[in-house]
Amino acid sequence: MKRLMLLEENQIAFHSQDGLIVDDVKDYSHQIAEMIGLGSDTEFLQAGVRTVLDIGCGFGSFSAHLLSLNLMALCVGAYESSGSQVQLTLERGLPAIIGNFISKQLPFPSLSYDMVHCAQCGIIWDSKDGLFLIEIDRVLKPGGYFILTSPITRQQGSSTSSKKGSMSTPLEEITKKLCWSLLEQQEETFVWQKTVDSQCYTSGKQGMVPLCKGEDMQLYYQPLARCISGTGSNRWVPILSRSGSLNSTELKVHGVHPEDFFEDSGFWKSAVRNYWSLLSPLIFSDHPKRPGDDDPLPPYNMVRNVLDMNAHYGGLNAALLEASKSVWVMNVVPLGVHNTLPLILDRGFAGVLHNWCEPFLTYPRTYDLLHGNGLLSHIASQGCNIIELLLEMDRILRPEGWVILSDKLGPIEKVRTLATQIRWEARVIDLQNGSDQRLLVCQKPFVGK
């Protein structure tokens, strides 16, 4: 077995088996941009591409490059008991979740991503009469792109470099029924674009995929559906027609009052300043020395990723970005609250729906900081077992990782007692604003052999 993680001097280097080195990834990304009709991959943002769902992402080489271009690329891959693409991607500090859609829909609403990418991801796309492609159509925004790189597809095609029409017959038939246009094929890589015309699905052409009844705003691992979603949604907006930031009209589409949204944004800007001020002496200057390690040179940021367990509007994510903190955030919208995930995804952030009575879609020890504002009160209202939640948080959290919970005094004190039982260092902080709100700040210890 090849060694995928190697210690080189004082850093871990990742030697992935996805066949892509840095220069290859840049060339590949540039090739995709040209096939879309752009001059360079630096123009993805101008073309409306901000968010990318990378299916079966190898070890994250392509995602890492997209993130360097200020795009949000989320890797999703199946669970593998012997070590996973997702696990290695998270170790690299990149966004990733465990998931597949062999039988269930992905935990995203319709019209979520600007681009979906699959490079040798192991999915036979024309199987089950295109059911998997229908799911891709569901999560793609109008005008979004599906990129497929696969030697199998090349073998089925009749040409290695042509435009429009050198695909295999099953794929050609299915994508036409989905109102996708094949922009270009170059050797093993195909680029399709989803229509921006919602009327295309009701054109009456023989064999068109039927429309779904109702919307899927609160879907959570429902069975794959053989119908088209999102055509009647107010969020049916072509990717090139969106503004750079959410305005009042777009907020109202999500059922959010602009004043509430901007008040929430201001709150999180202040909260981030307070959090970093609170944790900086511990994160940056008094980093605990591990056996055999030299003292790290400050500033040494221990936090690379954050799991916001009750993300609301994604305000914490936005505040961290605005403060230029070098972290990425997985925004979780719990079941049972107002579903703000479409808003979070439309802001260009990563996010999923999740039921916190169940395990989260990640491997052990993959997050540096867990955050929950009002999470404890929500969990109590759902009837979930609080100690099981804390044990799940302990599973997710890296050694020396942090937990910040904000809630009323009663739930905070209860959890503080439980936190000490699982050997977390815990302290309660009074916000001194006259409210009943408290902060619980915990750290998971580093336990040597």
Give a topology summary.
Blueprint: E1 5-8, E2 11-14, H1 22-36, E3 51-55, H2 61-68, E4 72-77, H3 85-91, E5 96-98, E6 113-119, H4 131-139, E7 140-149, H5 151-156, E8 161-162, H6 169-177, E9 180-186, E10 189-194, H7 248-253, H8 258-285, E11 305-308, H9 315-322, E12 328-334, H10 341-346, E13 350-354, E14 367-373, H11 375-382, H12 386-396, E15 397-408, H13 409-421, E16 425-430, E17 437-443
Parallel strand pairs: 3-4, 3-6, 4-5, 6-7, 11-12, 11-14, 12-13, 14-15
Antiparallel strand pairs: 1-2, 7-10, 8-9, 9-10, 15-17, 16-17
Helix pairs in contact: 1-2, 8-9
Organism: Nicotiana tabacum (Common tobacco)
Keywords: Methyltransferase, Transferase
Protein name: Methyltransferase PMT4 isoform X2
What does this entry look like structurally?
The protein is an alpha/beta fold. The chain has 13 helices and 17 strands. Strand 3 (51-55), helix 2 and strand 4 form a beta-alpha-beta unit. The chain is globular. Residues 17-21, 154-167, 284-292 and 295-299 have low confidence and may be disordered. This is Methyltransferase PMT4 isoform X2.
Summed over residues and divided by their number, the pLDDT gives a mean of 84
Query: Which blocks of ≥5 consecutive residues have pLDDT under 50?
Result: 17-21, 154-167, 284-292, 295-299
Count of discrete alpha- or pi-helical segments spanning 4 or more residues? 13
Helix/sheet category = alpha/beta
Which band does the percent of strand residues land in? 15-25%
SS elements, strand count = 17
Termini Cα gap: 25 Å
* Helix percentage range: 25-40%
- Radius of gyration, in angstroms, nearest whole number: 23 Å
Q: Give me the strand/helix succession.
A: EEHEHEHEEHEHEHEEHHEHEHEEHHEHEE
Shape: globular
Strand order of the largest sheet: 5-4-3-6-7-10-9-8
